[in-house]
Amino acid sequence: MTIRRAHITGWGKYVPEKVITNHDLAQMVDTSDEWITERTGIKERHVRGDNDTTTSMAVAAARQALDVAGLTPDELHLIIVANSSPDYLLPSPANFIQHELGARCPAFTIAAGCSGWVYGLSTANQFIQTGAYENVLVIGVEIISYALDYTDRTTCVLFGDAAAAVVVQPATDGSGLLTFELGSDGSLAHNLWVPGGGTVNPVSQTVVDNREHYIRMNGQEVARFAIRKLVSCLQSVTERAGMSLADLDLIIPHQANLRIIETAAKYLNLPMDKFFVNLHKYGNTSAASIPLALVEAIEQGRVKPGDTIGLVAFGSGLSWAGAVVQMGVRETAAAPVNGNGHVKVPV
Ligand SMILES: CC(C)(COP(=O)(O)OP(=O)(O)OC[C@H]1O[C@@H](n2cnc3c(N)ncnc32)[C@H](O)[C@@H]1OP(=O)(O)O)[C@@H](O)C(=O)NCCC(=O)NCCS
Questions:
Q1: 185-232 pLDDT, tens per residue?
Q2: Residue 86, SS3 per DSSP
Q3: How far, in Å, CA of 301 to CA of 312, rounded?
Q4: Which of 7, 77, 83, 114 is catalytic?
Q5: Residues near ligand 1 with C-beta < 6 Å?
Q6: Would you call 342 a catalytic residue per the annotation?
Q7: pLDDT tens digits, residue range 263-304?
Q8: Which domains are present in the chain?
Q9: Model confidence, pTM
């Protein structure tokens, strides 16, 4: 019997128009294009415009994903939103997104920082494997700029805003999400956190004066953790799939810092062209980072029908998550014509 797995049948993205370059940031804090480029690989990032909300960005990405999958919102059985920058503290952004999309299914949010979308994909896989649901939307969306202190050069240069979404449905050909690993080490939580605004330290004038409502980070500690987890998590999900790293056609790592990816690649003894990288354009878009990279990899033909993809994320928590996903194959007439009027696309 073929195991029923979640496979990706639709994808979409939304990136706000407004761009902040490294040169722009150098006007705001004591930094430079050279420093940011050399230490992170980031050249620019997009941040929300006046009309962008967490909901509107997620819905724009979701509509594209539904279109590609050939589904209407009322055919959805579940919406999972990975997010740590909600429009409001209550209710969860998933509810607003569900309403705005015109869906009638359950919807919930996973707050696992930059690992959230891989957590979401793995969760969707459980509902599909059990037979509970068929059509699940998994969105990663962040307006992380709202939590950035634009007087703190150690954090504000790193992040950007974006949304991306996939539709997953049961695979009929053995493809889909083959293995996953989810992890959390809460003993490291205070290395990347927002100290104010929660129940322990509620919003107050003091919190605002101390800028405790913004992200604080111990960059070196997070970088060490990130490299460790990129290496070990990727190895473990690949081994569990009965594969070696060489069997992966492409690795899509969390897009936080080029140096982190390069260092992990060296430890893994893999060439950099095995890794998809788009962080120079977007910075770290947290939960949107991996799906945004996946969508762009598909659009650029870097992910092809039948390809096996490694996904690996790390982030606040500190958390990590990885997966091996095998893309399916579908003949479609909707995509650009390749002679016979049909083109193979990953599904
Ligand atoms: C943040 C990060 C780029 C800093 O790079 P680094 O090589 O570790 O740099 P350090 O923290 O050692 O700082 C070196 C110096 O650069 C300075 N510096 C930090 N940010 C700077 C900036 N934007 N521009 C110029 N100088 C900067 C520091 O103040 C420090 O100065 P000092 O030596 O005078 O004290 C790196 O630690 C990192 O990427 N960490 C992981 C962060 C991450 O990915 N977070 C999200 C996870 S989801």
A1: 999 999 999 999 999 999 999 999 999 999 999 999 999 999 999 999
A2: coil
A3: 20
A4: 114
A5: 31, 35-36, 39-40, 114, 153-154, 157-158, 217, 219-220, 222-223, 226, 256-257, 284, 314-315
A6: no
A7: 999 999 999 999 999 999 999 999 999 999 999 999 999 999
A8: 6-173 (3.40.47.10), 178-277+290-329 (3.40.47.10)
A9: 0.94
